[in-house]
Design a protein that fits this description.
single chain; 334 residues; alpha/beta; 34% helix; 18% strand
Length: 334
């Protein structure tokens, strides 16, 4: 349930309303937008007399929200959320590009790629330290050492870092990581999501291989319910009957998610297609659809990559993609 507050309402009046609602055992979430103030109610709203609430002098209207996701719902928060990572802003018209290798392999590799993607216009550095692999015999990542190498690359370039967490027990290792990524396989690891809800650090939440948008938003809700509202949604392709591509990029998810939610939406065309030659057209499509950013895998030698080389761009290819994405964004703004 949301209550739209009339313009001219004082802080004292608003505070009295919130106190009254919280006395009913509800949690009141106040959102002050550019045009209006909304009080979102979370909890058992069946005890609230909507007609009585709407009759109050400071209340303009009352609406019940049928969707199970509340905090992530645009009805609760009409204005776009902007997630800030140091000097980088994501959402609300701010476009961010996260680039780097699938996995951190060596100091030279991650530092060299970091410098190259930054020069091409990337704003955040990605790199896998803990790698979830289908086969137990595949490279699983450098783990703690991988995070140390990412932090060293951050020192050299100034780029905030993004890396994936596999288990809540690893959280102490992520203390200096700027954005924690929850991968597709862990999208519904609810115990992990609860732990991430208790920290105050941006979370990049990837859509699962076979999950609906509603399920993605409910996973975001788990994080936000714990008090962490810095969530970035990521469309990375879903599993369909198509076999020519690794996954199927659901480009319609971008406008749909932005209609349903106020959270930033980024697109990962690398995992969505599994083919480096398809990354460019899918990145352009994502930018045209209104995505708030991209997440692209870049490797200095894709043929020798320990993980996902087939979908990785070279630094030169990435620079070319960045130029084209800039032109698309300029075109849709004009």
């Amino acid at each position: 349930m949301v209550a739209v507050i009339k313009q001219g309402t004082t802080e004292k009046q608003l505070g009295e309303l919130v106190a009254w609602l919280e006395d009913m055992g509800l949690t009141a979430h106040i959102c002050k937008g550019q045009q209006q103030t909304i009080v979102g109610l979370i909890g058992d709203t069946s005890r609230v007399d909507a007609e009585l609430l709407e009759s109050l002098s400071i209340v303009d209207s009352v609406k019940r929200i049928s969707e199970k996701f509340k905090s992530a719902n645009r009805k609760f928060h009409p204005d776009d959320t902007v997630v800030r990572v140091g000097s980088v802003a994501i959402g609300g018209g701010n476009f961010a590009v996260i680039a780097g290798p699938c996995s951190v392999e060596s100091p030279e590799q991650i530092s060299g790629i970091a410098e190259a993607v930054k020069a091409a216009g990337a704003t955040l550095l990605r790199g896998g330290a803990f790698k979830p692999r289908t086969s137990p015999y595949d490279f699983q990542g450098l783990r703690a050492q991988g995070i140390e190498l990412l932090l060293h690359a951050k020192e050299k370039t100034g780029m905030p870092i993004v890396t994936e967490i596999m288990d809540a027990s690893h959280l102490p290792l992520f203390e200096n990581v700027d954005v924690i990524q929850v991968g597709a396989r862990n999208m519904q690891n609810f115990e992990l999501l609860k732990e991430l809800g208790m920290i105050r650090k941006p979370i990049l939440l990837k859509r699962g291989l076979a999950n609906t948008l509603s399920e993605l938003l409910m996973s975001a809700e788990y994080i936000m319910a714990g008090g962490n509202e810095q969530v970035i949604l990521c469309e990375r392709g879903i599993r369909t009957f198509e076999t020519y591509t690794r996954n199927t990029l659901d480009i319609s998810a971008v406008p749909m998610l932005k209609e349903l939610s106020h959270l930033p939406v980024v697109v990962d065309p690398s995992h969505a297609t599994g083919m480096s030659r398809l990354v460019r057209p899918m990145a352009l499509a994502a930018a045209a659809a209104g995505a708030d950013g991209l997440m692209i895998e870049v490797h200095n030698n894709p043929q020798q990559a320990l993980c996902d080389g087939a979908q990785s761009l070279t630094p030169a290819e990435f620079a070319d993609v960045m130029k084209s994405v800039t032109k698309v964004r300029e075109a849709i703004r004009s």
